[in-house]
Design a protein that fits this description.
The chain has 174 residues and is an all-alpha fold. It has helices at 16-36, 42-51, 61-67, 75-103, 109-128, 151-171; strands spanning 7-8, 13-14. The longest helix is centred in the middle third of the chain and has 29 residues, at 75-103.
Length: 174
């Protein structure tokens, strides 16, 4: 996903709703692609069907930051990058959980549920920068710096992970 399309150089704001919509669409496209893909081996194909390993990502964070006059290697840039990443990932997992509600979770979800939900909770803790709550980690990753992140991005990141966890706890993940 090209982040440059979501930053407005004049207002210096990020189009959260447009980005969330794009993340939802691409998550669905990637799910469909598992059904249509040609894999390099039978083993890779089986893992893809069993675990639904998808790859969603973005490009041009540095360009978008430069256009909005935010120094690339600054605390603010890292907080914005963390929030955008949290929005993308949380939205993708929330969409995955919504698909699981309709289609069922990925084949091997049941045996991985406990660990997967722990990982989802840890992602949510990072969005809230609630590092004392991390589960099963010896090294605590940094959360989103709430003093540096614009409120609207921080709120969107936390909301994305609230929805991803709440919906996933009910239906699992696709």
């Amino acid at each position: 996903i090209n982040l440059a399309h979501f930053f407005d150089a004049k207002t210096r704001l990020f189009d959260v709703k447009g980005f969330e919509h794009t993340c939802r669409i691409w998550t669905i496209v990637l799910e469909i692609s598992v059904l249509m893909a040609q894999f390099p081996s039978k083993e890779v194909a089986q893992l893809s069907y069993d675990y639904r390993t998808l790859g969603l990502g973005y490009a041009n964070l540095g360009s978008a930051l430069m256009v909005t006059v935010i120094p690339y290697d600054s605390k603010k840039a890292r907080a914005i990058g963390g929030a955008i990443t949290a929005i993308m990932t949380g939205t993708a997992y929330a969409t995955s959980a919504e698909m699981a509600r309709e289609l069922g979770p990925f084949k091997r979800y049941g045996e991985n549920k406990k660990h997967m939900l722990r990982v989802m909770r840890n992602h949510r803790y990072a969005a809230y920068n609630s590092t004392e709550n991390f589960e099963g980690l010896d090294i605590h990753p940094p959360g989103i710096d709430q003093t540096q992140c614009p409120d609207y991005l921080l709120s969107a990141a936390c909301n994305a992970w609230d929805k991803a966890l709440e919906t996933g706890e009910k239906y699992g993940y696709r």
